[in-house]
Design the sequence.
């Protein structure tokens, strides 16, 4: 269980608190810390599977999902060596399945190390090196901080679209709890409160080279950067801010403002796609972003097909997964009863 989590970088911790991060019917035990580490969350998932006596098949990647018949519904998942047939298909491969590595001009000629952030484990291979991290999401800022704190010679973070940054525990309260409370307010008011809180606790970030955010969490329905050391690293001069990356040279980077700089390694924290367009033969259940049209846990336009884990929320992905899985169970039960 937790194969994706097990492959993430060593520094990774949940940004959501233990009490709001457990899955349905088996909460995270209290012997785990408030913000679970990567290893702890993987261990919890193993406990979860054992507690619920789940049958988990590993090393069975699904290559294709197709509908064999609509009435009655029949779905087929094709793996490398077999086909699995079922009446109900729940797709829960997540929003972060396929790494996106941009095709920058000059990429083929760059002689340094270039990898997606999904392959980053720790700072050890980058000691003494000049490193550019591209992308200022949560992974990008945390990886830049990890590199800076663990003996990289120089660390820069290239930012295309300035994100909002919020403290993880404003005024001693986990930001997740604040997010749950503010979700009941109009977006404009919630955004104003988030901006004020960040300014009071983190200070004027424009003095550190960060531009004013181009979007705000509640109106954009996007998760902000949750600060777990990045701002401190900036204030200490351990991480430098750079403009958007325009292209690569044999020895480094060219930025949008025309400046150039040498780098031994580049880590692309440039996001993921769901990969659902290639996985599913049925395309009408997806939007232009290759994500499900229908909410997680709810019926779709195709009989017997459901999705889980695709909710964009400021209340926490695991919190939403708990709620959506309960809806899913009721909807699947109702569907099976109605279709005999």
Sequence:
């Amino acid at each position: 269980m937790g194969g994706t989590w097990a492959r993430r970088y060593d520094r990774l911790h949940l940004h959501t608190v233990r009490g709001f991060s457990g899955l349905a019917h088996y909460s995270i035990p209290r012997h785990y810390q408030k913000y679970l580490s990567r290893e702890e969350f993987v261990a919890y998932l193993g406990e979860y599977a054992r507690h619920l006596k789940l049958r988990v098949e590993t090393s069975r990647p699904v290559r294709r999902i197709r509908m064999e018949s609509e009435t009655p519904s029949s779905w087929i998942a094709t793996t490398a060596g077999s086909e699995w047939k079922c009446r109900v298909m729940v797709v829960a491969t997540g929003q972060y399945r396929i790494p996106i590595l941009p095709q920058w001009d000059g990429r083929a000629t760059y002689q340094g190390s270039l990898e997606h952030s999904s392959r980053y484990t720790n700072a050890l291979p980058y000691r003494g090196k000049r490193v550019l991290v591209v992308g200022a999401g949560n992974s990008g800022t945390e990886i830049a901080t990890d590199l800076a704190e663990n003996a990289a010679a120089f660390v820069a973070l290239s930012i295309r679209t300035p994100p909002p940054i919020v403290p993880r525990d404003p005024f001693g309260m986990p930001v997740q709890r604040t997010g749950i409370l503010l979700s009941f307010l109009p977006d404009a008011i919630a955004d104003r409160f988030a901006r004020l809180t960040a300014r009071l606790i983190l200070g004027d970030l424009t003095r550190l080279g960060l531009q004013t955010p181009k979007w705000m969490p509640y109106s954009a329905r996007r998760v902000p950067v949750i600060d777990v050391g990045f701002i401190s690293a900036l204030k200490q001069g351990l991480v430098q801010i750079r403009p958007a990356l325009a292209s690569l040279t044999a020895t480094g980077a060219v930025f949008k403002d025309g400046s150039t700089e040498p780098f031994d390694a580049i880590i692309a924290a440039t996001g993921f796609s769901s990969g659902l367009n290639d996985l599913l033969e049925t395309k009408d259940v997806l939007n232009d972003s290759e994500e499900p049209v229908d909410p997680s846990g709810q019926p779709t336009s195709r009989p017997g097909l459901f999705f889980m884990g695709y909710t964009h929320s400021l209340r926490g992905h695991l919190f939403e997964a708990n709620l959506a899985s309960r809806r899913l169970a009721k909807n699947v039960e109702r569907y099976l009863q109605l279709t005999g």
